[in-house]
Design goal:
Blueprint lengths: L10 E5 L4 H16 L8 E5 L8 H6 L2 H17 L4 E3 L9 H5 L6 E2 L1 H12 L5 E6 L1 H5 L2 H6 L4 E3 L3 H13 L12 H15 L4 E5 L1 H4 L2 H6 L7 H8 L13 E6 L3 H14 L10 E6 L6 H6 L6 H13 L4 E3 L9 H4 L7 E2 L1 H12 L5 E5 L2 H6 L1 H9 L10 E3 L3 H12 L11 H16 L4 E4 L11 E6 L2 E6 L1 H13 L1 H4 L3
Parallel strand pairs: 1-2, 1-3, 3-4, 5-6, 5-7, 8-9, 8-10, 10-11, 12-13, 12-14, 14-16
Antiparallel strand pairs: 15-16
Helix pairs in contact: 1-12, 5-12, 8-9, 13-22, 17-19, 17-22, 20-21
């Protein structure tokens, strides 16, 4: 994905509701900051808020984390569906679980504490002691230690000051959350700040967005406090999407056919190096067996499956898939029609198969193709061979052999017959028919066989030395090759290439 700065990426969302006063203050400052941008760098600021009960001090101490997490996820999902480029999350409590929600959402969350750290590093490079005004929950979770512990000493108010001054100033009856932005709330915060200064703090950092709303009033009393809401707003203008990572996800167009879909998923799992559940790759499957038959359309009067395949791909795109796999050879006759309308790549199983042959079996010359009549008629495998170009061993392009009419009818019976694979029959009788078709191709000069229909590997597994007609030839499974390629693309090295 091309890296772009947010000011060129159209819009920034602000999540409200996790403290109405603080989030409204951030939204106002973000709007003023965005208004200073001009032309193509203009930023559109969006605001979203639902009812969320966070009014009492006990709620802050306990953080209501489960309810808060779901609220944040729902708001992020809403912004994602609106096409927002990135989101500001003005809630320090929520930043204690930012990694959890970011892993499940596509829209980047701009890290508030990272923005504060960057600001302080630029403005106060010799800073040694930082006073932090934050909730007891955030202190317990050591959020600020995650960013500052290696560089600075973090100071917090004493236990008495934390409860009697800081928490009262924000959550008390006359506190900031209840709309009191002067008077007692400022006096209480001033006392908490003085406690930190007495401990040696060189600067005060609000770790509650409500406190940032009164930073100017505290500064007027001589407190060296920064406005974290303003800093957070300004950070959006230089934020880059590559700063946020989320779990790689493979999207699968399933149901074409159903058993082949399961086979592909099993092969992805089998080829993934994993020692625990969490090491496996995220998958999302759009399983639609109602997609019109591809072969019926290519060689007969069957309905056109283009829109159905495209719709499946768009749903995978909307579900934040990074790549799309279609474990159906015949469906690749329609890929070229839709790829340019998608923002994520379809991993072309046919091209990957030809590339695999060139790399692993470059000494071979004749590819024997066993596939549906629709795949053969479409010429998609021949196109993949032609696009592969000259082989690196100097032997020119591969040549392709397909079965004669008798043996092609045999292949179609294996796939579509009343006792074929699509009807659920995977037994020795069906397998024997497939072996006859393989022997036919080998007898006609094929020195490598491609099982070019995803039902066929359910009968015979990939084998580099398959014994047939008195010879041993490679029999290749494009589903296996596609699965391995998708796993490779999901690796850290592979992600850079997508």
């Amino acid at each position: 994905m091309k890296v772009e700065q947010i000011q060129r990426a159209m819009s920034v969302g602000v999540i409200g509701g996790l403290g109405a006063i603080g989030s409204a203050d951030l939204y106002a400052k973000m709007t003023r900051t965005a208004a200073r941008t001009v032309g193509k760098d203009r930023v559109k600021v969006l605001f979203g808020q639902l009812a969320f009960d966070d009014a009492d001090m006990a709620g802050a101490e306990n953080a209501q984390t489960n309810t808060r997490k779901l609220y944040v996820f729902d708001m992020l999902r809403d912004f994602e569906q609106r096409g927002t480029s990135a989101v500001l999350l003005p809630c320090f409590i929520s930043h204690t679980f930012i990694d959890e929600v970011q892993a499940e959402i596509g829209v980047p969350i701009i890290d508030m504490v990272a923005a504060i750290r960057s600001h302080l590093a630029q403005r106060l490079p010799k800073l040694q002691k930082i006073g932090v005004l934050t909730s007891s929950y955030v202190r317990k979770k050591a959020l600020f230690e995650k960013y500052f512990a290696d560089d600075c000493e973090l100071l917090y108010p004493s236990a008495v000051m934390q409860h009697a001054c800081l928490m009262r100033a924000v959550y008390g009856t006359t506190g900031i959350k209840n709309g009191y932005l002067d008077g007692e709330s400022i006096d209480l915060l001033y006392r908490a700040c003085k406690d930190l200064l007495d401990q040696g703090a060189q600067v005060i950092v609000p770790g509650m967005t409500e406190i940032a709303t009164v930073a100017e009033a505290l500064s007027a009393r001589g407190i060296p406090i920064i406005d974290t809401n303003q800093i957070y707003a300004e950070s959006a203008l230089s934020f880059q999407a590559e700063q946020v990572g989320r779990s790689f996800k493979i999207g699968v167009v399933g149901g074409v056919g159903p058993a082949a879909t399961v086979d592909f998923i099993e092969k992805v799992i089998k080829n993934t190096p994993a020692a625990r559940d969490q090491d496996h790759i995220k998958l999302v499957v759009e399983h639609n067996p109602k997609i019109p038959d591809r072969t019926d359309n290519l060689i007969g009067d069957g309905a056109d499956p283009t829109v159905a395949i495209y719709a499946a791909c768009k749903r995978l795109e909307s579900d934040n898939a990074d790549i799309i796999a279609i474990p159906c050879n015949t469906a690749h006759a329609f890929v070229e029609r839709i790829q340019s309308y998608l923002s994520i790549p379809i991993v072309n199983m046919l091209s990957e198969t030809v590339s695999y042959i060139e790399k692993r079996h470059g000494d071979k010359s004749w590819i024997g193709l066993l596939a549906t009549s629709g795949t053969i008629a479409s010429g998609v495998y021949q196109q993949a061979v032609d696009q592969n170009g000259e082989r690196s061993n100097g032997h020119g392009k591969f040549s392709m052999i397909v079965p004669d009419a008798e043996h092609q009818a045999l292949v179609m019976d294996v796939i579509y017959g009343e006792q074929g694979v699509k009807a659920g029959f995977v037994n020795d009788d069906v397998r024997a028919k497939l072996e006859r078709a393989i022997a036919h191709l080998v007898a006609n000069g094929a020195d490598v066989i491609v099982l070019g229909c995803t039902e066929l590997p359910l009968l015979i597994a990939q084998d580099d030395k398959f014994a047939v007609a008195g010879k041993r030839v490679p029999v290749l499974d494009p589903t296996e090759i596609l699965a391995r390629r998708c796993v490779a693309l999901a690796s850290p090295q592979g992600r850079k290439a997508t």
